[in-house]
Amino acid sequence: MATPEELAVIEKAKVLMVGAGGIGCELLKTLALTGFKDIHLIDLDTIEVSNLNRQFLFRKQHVGQSKAKVARDAVLKFKPDIKIEAHHANVKNSDFDVEFFKQFNVVLNGLDNVDARRHVNRLCLAAGVPLVESGSTGYLGQVTVHVKDQTECYECQTKELPKTYPVCTITNTPSKPVHCIVWAKDLLFARLFGDRNQSSDLIVHTNDRTSSAATADTDFFNIKDGETPESYACRVFDGVFGDNIEVALRNEETWKSRKRPRPLYICEVYSDAKKPRIDGSCNSPDGNDKHTASAARILGLSNPQEVWTVRDSANVFLKALELLLNTRQKDIGSLVFDKDDQLAMEFVTAAANLRSSCFDIPMQSLFEAKGIAGNIVHAIATTNAIISGLIVLEAIKLLMGNLDDCR
Amino acid sequence: MEEVAVEALTEQEAAVYDRQIRVWGVEAQRRLSRAHVLVIGMSNVLTELCKNIVLAGIGSLTLMEDAPSVSTVMNTSFLIPVEQIESDKSFLTECAESLKDFNPMVHVTVEKGSLEEKPDDFLNNFDVVVVGRSLLKYRMHVNSLCRKRGPKIAFLSVDCRGPLGEIFIDLQTHTYVLKAKENVPHSLQNLVYCSLEEAIAARWDRLPKKTTKLFYAMRIMEDFEQSNSRLPGQVTLDDLASVLDTRKRLCESQGMPETLVPDKLLHRLLYAEAREHPPVCAILGGILGQELLKVLSGKGEPLKNFFFFDPMDGKGITEEIPRPDDTPIIMQSAEIEI
Questions:
Q1: How many CB pairs under 8 A join A and B?
Q2: Is the dihedral of CA A126, A129, A130, A134 positive or negative?
Q3: So where are chain B's domains?
Q4: CATH 3.40.50.720 fits B2-198+276-337, yes or no
């Protein structure tokens, strides 16, 4: 309970919340219980199953619906007498201009990306409205207060740029699982299913350009007339895991102080076993639902925590490629990688693992690969609950004009 | 400590718990799903705790109303829709139904009756018992039951008075995995906790000088409520004079000056009456939830043994009371001849 002075200020305050996710759900609940009566909430996202472990205002039946709207409805159930305006929109939308921001006494961020945070920071500075910033990952979280002319703003401290890797590491000399995943996602998957006209770093040449892999042929990755999905898949496999590596090995300089990779060919993987059945006509019942169609499941690999063998990975590579070709014809040429696209994720995991095996890098499970490929932020409810409490305490101090008490 | 054979979680568990499995791993999640927790009492901070552990996916949560206290949780809580406040169902039943909704994979039930009426081995059904606002003697009683009964039962208690909160933890003995770092491999660590009775019996004049004053203030409140036959939380500012007397008496018996506990602190505790400040409930419920999950999963170093929060400190404070090395520490400005 707040003191009477605090309560008077709280009840009259107009608050803008940006983000109705992990921090947002906890924050909206805490604000409502503390006595705030006038709240605007902006979030562009819809609810997903993986939100439900912590975004407790949402239920399974809400999957697909607007986070801002469902959060509002859930809170009004236990606090019907307050005003919550929910905007299912991007905070960068021009409707949310300086005039819009000026109506608030304080802005509270529960965002998950630097770009949006920068945007809100600038609007708060322009509108002269104090901002309480926050963020969380796993067990870690933080809350900071930004008041124009009195504290540093959000951008005063340089933010760490997202990790990128040198092109040559990805194309020639991977040494970590992430390098292989980036190769599989941004080079191979993109070349096979994305825009064909984009130049690709997938091609490997010798340094003196005297020889190139077969993959250097601009049509290499296009399926040939009369070619079956099976022979196409095998040709691609041999090209990227076999031929490309052979050519790379010819650059002696590169390997002077590095472990030499080993090329991998289909015939080696299947020397003593049958390839998975590829019959060109996929009759999988869920073949068209990108969230459930799965090559791994067909192959009996149902545990996403399990690390596949080279043979498993090859099986998934061939099967996923076949399924993608057969069930997504219209998307081929414009498909963008999405970590929640099951087939795409399986394909990328398989391809990354096969490449890893060539370079003696440990292979990853589907679960781990998804985390890396999708830049997934691990998250739990308790951290967000604590952060929400701290945000509200700071917000109250700001509203009371007690900037010196703010942490 | 290598992760043992990767038995698959159900598809539903894997989908819902994905983001937290990435924090603590599959094995810890499996242990949580086999855990049974008993929560005695219901208050705003306990609703936060229950939300957190249900979302995390414990095996079962049993709610019990046993120790009487005053709480404002029935007026507003995020667990109960306003239209259901007048319903025929008991408050705890409403809470249980709401919590089940948060995570249908958790078994949430209400246990009727009081602890006294239960068979001797009732507590053996649980891995953890959490007690909310209650008389000190009730908490000590439950704590001693946890220590007496067969398999080790963890005991945690919490109370939030306005913006001020206290958590106590007694795990008896607890083994946990200390994460590998740099050149140091994973290792098993062992902690030994004292009972609530031992903690309360610690002489004030032997505690470190910088021990948070909130510890002493809470003991004064406990003593006042007990001596005046009040329900915990049944206090107002009108009690200030009487509480200051209690302070005088306790400080004298503990060999400490009254200045140990500022008037202002007691004033704030009395002003709170039975209320709990929602942002502090969120913080305490989060800390308590996380401690509970550490205990159940065996991962991470748990708090030992008190945690305090006062927004005016701007930080949470952990105290170990009493300290294991029982060397007396001179608290007063005793004259020392050099």
A1: 143
A2: negative
A3: 2-198+276-337, 200-272
A4: yes
